Each structure stands twice: as C-alpha cells, then as structure tokens.
Amino acid sequence: MSKIDHNELMKIFENMPDSMAYIFERGLTGESSKFIYASPSAINIYGIESTLIEENAMNIISMIKEENIKSFVETVQHSYETLENWNWVGILVNNKTIKCSSKPYIYSKDTDGNNIIRWYGSVTDITETTQNLKNKIK
Q: What is the DSSP code (8-state) at residue 49?
C-alpha cells in the first residue's frame, strides 16, 4: 500500500464540508494544549479559518454554549486521564449542534523531550440531522 500525501488528504476533506478533521495535542502534565492541525472546513462549522484554530484553541472553545462547557471539559479530561476515545455532542453559540469524536494516542516526545498525547478526530455539524429527528418525534 502506498502512502497518501497531504494534497490527497485535502481532497477528502473538500468532500466533507460539514466535518472538520483535527489533531489536538496536550502535554502529559497538562501544561500545553493546542490544535496542531484543523482542516479548512472549520470555516463551515465555526465561521473562522482553520489557521485561527491552530493559533489558539480558545478561538473555538469559547464558541461552546455556556451550559455545555462543563460536559465538554469533563469528557476531555476523562479521555486525557484514561486514554479512552473522546465523544461529545454539544451546541455552539451559533446554534449549531456538533458531534466530536477522536481517539487519543501517546505521541512520544515534543521538542523539549516531554511526552504528549495527541487526539486524532473530527467535529461534525449534526444540526440538520438533530432537527430532523426532533421533527419526527413531534
């Protein structure tokens, strides 16, 4: 099997406008957290360029509705502590419902020699699906 290059991966993401692929990284002591990659489709979900997400994770975390922040933090922390898959559904301030899922991996060392954890995952806009289900229940 041949390796896939970055340009080929970008073609996949172009066909997934309602999903943002990402790589999120956190040190084992919790001192540093950041998105090292966010796919360009971030703009369709969050309304901001992926480069802004990579510059500062708070640019999207601050978009989570206040009543959803606690469950977001708790599920991320649980995944961090147990290395179990992370799954979360919540609502953004722009009223989009999103589903997040990822699998954590211990990723050897950062540039300072510290162990880090990386989550490889996706954020999907499920607003329309959620609304359709609500309408069927009515």
A: -
* Rounded to 5°, angle at Cα 10 from 117 and 21: 35
Distance in angstroms (rounded) separating the CA atoms of residues 50 and 108? 25
Phi-psi region of 8 (alpha: psi -120 to 50; beta: other; left: phi over 0): alpha
Question: What CA–CA distance (Å, rounded) separates 91 from 86?
Answer: 16
pLDDT tens digits for 92-110?
999 989 999 998 887 666 6
Sheet with 33-38: strands ordered across: 33-38, 19-27, 115-125, 97-109, 86-91
Which residue has 């799954």 as its token pair? 87
Pick the more confident residue, 62 or 5.
Answer: 62
- φ and ψ at residue 5, rounded to 5 degrees: -90, 170
